[in-house]
C-alpha cells in the first residue's frame, strides 16, 4: 500500500481487496472495539489516506468480533484538558474529511454502535446494520453534549422529532428499528451484514466512478451546509468534558453503579 495506512498500531486493520474495495476493521474485539486516545488520531489519519488513495474506489468500515464500535474506552485514564482539546479537534477534522471524500463509504454495522461508533456508521453513505444490533447515541448518558455527529446527520436522516427523542434520551434502537425510521439504509441478519456490504461495495466499484463521486458531492452539500451546527455541538462538548457531570459519569462506570448527575440533584428547601 506504498506509504498509505502504515502508521497504525494494530487496533485498526486495513485490507485492500482485488475489486477496488478497501475494508477498514476496528480491531479491539475484547473491548467491543472501543477507542483508546491514540486510535482517534489513527482513524483520522486513515480517512485522510483514503481521500488521497488512487487505488480505492469504495470503502467498507466494520468492527471485529461482536461489536461495530462502542465509542471511547472509558476504562482508560481520564484525558487531560489538553488531550481533550486535541481529541475533539481531531474529531472535527475527521468529520470534515469524511464529508469531503468522494469515494462511496459503506458501514457494515455488525453489532453495537455507540457514540463515536454510531457517528462512523451514520456518516457513511450507505449503512447496513444487523437487525439485532444495538445503536445508541449515548452522549447525554455520560453528561456531555452530543457533539460528534448528531446535530449534523440525525435531522437529515429521521427529522427533528425523532432526533430530539433519541439524542436527548440516549434510548437504544435495534438495527431493524433504525431501518424503519430511516436512520440506516438496510437491516439484515447479523451473518449477512459484511457480505452484503461487500456485495454493494463491489457493485459500486464496477460503476461509473465519475457519476458516483459527482452524485455524492452534490448530495453531501446538504451535510456541508450544516457543518456550523456540528462545530457548535463539538465546542459545547469540549465544555462538558470539564464538568462535574462528566466526572461523575466516569466514576459511576468504574464503580458499576447508577450515575448521580450533580446538575440533576434537587437543592434542599431553605429552612423557615
From TrEMBL:
Gene3D superfamilies listed in its UniProt record: 2-enoyl-CoA Hydratase, Chain A, domain 1, Lyase 2-enoyl-coa Hydratase, Chain A, domain 2
Record-level Gene Ontology MF annotations: catalytic activity
Source organism phylogeny: Bacteria, Bacillati, Actinomycetota, Actinomycetes, Kitasatosporales
Coiled coil (residue ranges): none
Family: Belongs to the enoyl-CoA hydratase/isomerase family.
Protein name: Enoyl-CoA hydratase/isomerase family protein
Organism whose genome encodes this protein: Streptomyces malaysiensis subsp. samsunensis
Amino acid at each position: 500500500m506504498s506509504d498509505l495506512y502504515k502508521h497504525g498500531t494494530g487496533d485498526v486493520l486495513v485490507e485492500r481487496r482485488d475489486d477496488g474495495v478497501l475494508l477498514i476493521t476496528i480491531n479491539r474485539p475484547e473491548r467491543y472495539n472501543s477507542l483508546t486516545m491514540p486510535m482517534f488520531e489513527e482513524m483520522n489519519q486513515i480517512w485522510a489516506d483514503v481521500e488521497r488513495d488512487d487505488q480505492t474506489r469504495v470503502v467498507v468500515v466494520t468492527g471485529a468480533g461482536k461489536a461495530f464500535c462502542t465509542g471511547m474506552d472509558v476504562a482508560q485514564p481520564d484525558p487531560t484538558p489538553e488531550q481533550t482539546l486535541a481529541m475533539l479537534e481531531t474529531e472535527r477534522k475527521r468529520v470534515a474529511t469524511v464529508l469531503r471524500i468522494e469515494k462511496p463509504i459503506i458501514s457494515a454495522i455488525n453489532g453495537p454502535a455507540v457514540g463515536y461508533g454510531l457517528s462512523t456508521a451514520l456518516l457513511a453513505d450507505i449503512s447496513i446494520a444487523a437487525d439485532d444490533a444495538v445503536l445508541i447515541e449515548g452522549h447525554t448518558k455520560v453528561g456531555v453534549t452530543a457533539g460528534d455527529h448528531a446535530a449534523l446527520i440525525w435531522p437529515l436522516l429521521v427529522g427533528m422529532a425523532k432526533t430530539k427523542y433519541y439524542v436527548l434520551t440516549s434510548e437504544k434502537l435495534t438495527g431493524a428499528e433504525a431501518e424503519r425510521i430511516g436512520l440506516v439504509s438496510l437491516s439484515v441478519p447479523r451473518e449477512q451484514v459484511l457480505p452484503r456490504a461487500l456485495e454493494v461495495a463491489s457493485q459500486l466499484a464496477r460503476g461509473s466512478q465519475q457519476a458516483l463521486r459527482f452524485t455524492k458531492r452534490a448530495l453531501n452539500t446538504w451535510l456541508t451546509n450544516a457543518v456550523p451546527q456540528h462545530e457548535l455541538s463539538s465546542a459545547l462538548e469540549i465544555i462538558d468534558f470539564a464538568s462535574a457531570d462528566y466526572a461523575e459519569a466516569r466514576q459511576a462506570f468504574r464503580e458499576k453503579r447508577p450515575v448521580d448527575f450533580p446538575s440533576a440533584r434537587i437543592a434542599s428547601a431553605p429552612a423557615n
